[in-house]
Amino acid sequence: MKKRPNILLIYTGGTIGMIKDSDTGALKNFNFNELLEYIPELNLLDCNISSKSFLKPIDSSNMKPSNWVEIGTIIEDNYKNYDGFVILHGSDTMSYTASALSFMLENLSKPVIFTGSQLPIGDLRTDAKENLITSIQIASLVEDNQPVVQEVGLYFEYKLFRANRTTKINAEHFEAFDSPDYPPLIISGVNLSVNYDFLLKTKTSKKLVVHKIFEPNILLLKLFPGINEKTINHILTTPNLKGIIFETYGSGNLTDEKWFLKAIKKVIDKNIPVINVTQCFGGSVDMSLYSTNKLYQNIGIVSGKDITTEAAITKLMFMLGQNISANVFKTKFETSLRGEMK
What we know:
By secondary structure, the chain is of the alpha/beta class. 26% of the residues lie in helices and 21% in strands. It contains 9 helices and 20 strands. It has helices spanning 35-38, 65-78, 94-104, 128-140, 229-235, 258-268, 291-299, 309-321, 326-333; strands at residues 6-11, 18-20, 27-29, 48-53, 84-88, 105-106, 112-115, 142-143, 146-147, 152-156, 159-162, 167-168, 177-178, 186-188, 192-194, 209-210, 218-222, 243-248, 274-278, 302-303. The strands form 6 sheets. An 8-stranded mixed β-sheet has the order 4-1-5-7-10-11-14-15, sandwiched between helices. A 4-stranded parallel β-sheet has the order 17-18-19-20. A two-stranded antiparallel sheet has the order 2-3. The longest helix is centred in the N-terminal third of the chain and has 14 residues, at 65-78.
């Protein structure tokens, strides 16, 4: 007899877990132990579903690294007893949390699927039901006694993406997320269409390792025409600064102003990594295209290639937490750890 997969839902907060109070009209978190009351269709799924919730569910705009560790710890504590995990999360910072979890969970061999919704689960027009039901189905997919998905994914509006390749693109449409430089892993239609060639091929027998140290003392700075020396020098002398991400123009282009190059070199000389990420929605950093950028290559600025800003931030915080030596930091950051870059 075929074994029914055991799936654990982890509710962190967000719109998907809210219902409207019939008396006041205000949104409030509902008890996830009563999940079947709101989505009786879950009874039809061929799996066993359990749920855990943060003691105090939070708005995703309040999400921080300690909450990422809380999610990772729940997965770690329940890893042996469940075949897949579905994490319910507010959409605003979902790509950050999902990217962080992808780096935290080393040797992951089971599906960890993030999802949420634009409308509360009790709303007549809600997208929550489809997102939740399909996420559970994806987490339950098994072939040859192995999970089909063995990585951290993000499911929203008929598409499963690699989590660390996603970004939120719309605050109003149901199609809230996209993966600009990597195709969907699964597309939901009449059937679930799996793009096997794009799934991570883990095939590991190693024990899951959950990394729990993130370095929060980093900066994200978006370049813009007119940014000046005084501003840059002030920002780059922030006390206890451990890393910087610059969102640059086009294919990673930076100004060739001498004062700017000098300011960046001064930071890199302190063994503070500086990451170059394009501010374009799609595409990749290529620092060999223009002679200007070769100056920055020569002083050791790190190419983010086609990484998203969300993944760059969480990867930088993760790697700094690993105390990786300065002489290999650039090489390791420019190498894909969890399929986050080409």
